[in-house]
């Protein structure tokens, strides 16, 4: 019987958090797979009653709620959940799950299948990436991708084809399973990231370390794309506001961008640093450069 720790960090999204946990546990129970799960949730100082709502649901699987003070954001919150699961021990793998994501039924059976496939195909377990689609349009939103240009970091998503498990180089953390064998070598997220970035860092460095990253055959969940084009709002800001937005965890988060490049693509660091501040000074011109290199 495989044992899986499900890891979340949440903040003031009670309805989304409950919908996520509902889908997680409902699909898990209905699938009747040979998996035991325990959920570790870090509530990073929610004031909307998120923790209380989880308690009131009386879910049929064990859920441990850990407390944050509002300063953790996603990366540190996930580390807190992850370390709690490691400290408890006995887990074969760890599932990263964003609380704005709803699990689809096929995920659980594919999770068992891909584990066997990976061992048979390459002789080791790895990281298994569940792709998500928009709940309305069914268009791909998050999942695995490859870098097709190591200078511009232009990427190409690996879209589930319904037939094959396909390898990728890097992944989002919306629905991503990390085998214990990977964690024994890689540990948990790097703790210098503020909010996002840890998932890309971890998956890409695991890939470079020789662990396989497999994209599941079918969509594993539904999730809206909340990474919209930020340039429209950015261009209308004052220079001082743009510089602050560059540094903000909810803006362009230059700290994370530089950190990711230092750890994964160090030759790009001077260019990234320069472009970060040129973006603040010449936002419209910078957007055109960005769009050009993303073609």
Task: Please describe what this structure looks like.
It is a single chain. The chain is of the alpha/beta class and 295 residues long. It contains 11 helices and 15 strands. Strands 3-2-1-4-13-6-14-11 form an 8-stranded mixed β-sheet, sandwiched between helices. Strands 5-15-7-8 form a 4-stranded mixed β-sheet. α9 runs antiparallel to α10 (269-281). The chain is globular and about 55 Å long. The mean pLDDT is 92.
What's this entry about, in short?
The protein is α/β, with parallel strands linked by helices. It has helices at 14-31, 50-57, 73-88, 106-122, 180-186, 198-208, 231-235, 239-247, 254-264, 269-281, 283-293, and strands at 2-10, 35-43, 63-67, 93-97, 102-103, 127-129, 132-133, 140-142, 144-149, 154-157, 166-167, 170-171, 175-179, 213-215, 221-222. A hairpin with a 4-residue loop joins β9 (144-149) and β10.
Describe the protein's topology.
Blueprint (H helix, E strand, L loop, with lengths): L1 E9 L3 H18 L3 E9 L6 H8 L5 E5 L5 H16 L4 E5 L4 E2 L2 H17 L4 E3 L2 E2 L6 E3 L1 E6 L4 E4 L8 E2 L2 E2 L3 E5 H7 L11 H11 L4 E3 L5 E2 L8 H5 L3 H9 L6 H11 L4 H13 L1 H11 L2
Parallel strand pairs: 1-2, 1-4, 2-3, 6-14, 7-15
Antiparallel strand pairs: 4-13, 5-15, 6-13, 7-8, 9-10, 9-12, 11-14
Helix pairs in contact: 1-2, 8-10, 9-10, 10-11
Strand percentage, roughly?
15-25%
Average pLDDT reading: 92
Structural class: alpha/beta
Strand-and-helix sequence, N→C?
A: EHEHEHEEHEEEEEEEEHHEEHHHHH
How many individual helices? 11
The helicity comes to 40-55%
Number of strands: 15
Radius of gyration: 19 Å
Q: Give the N-to-C terminal Cα separation.
A: 46 Å
The main β sheet shows up as:
8 strands, mixed
Main sheet: strand order: 3-2-1-4-13-6-14-11
Can you tell me the residue ranges where pLDDT is under 50 for at least 5 consecutive residues?
A: none
Oligomeric organization of the protein chains? single chain
Principal-axis shape equals globular
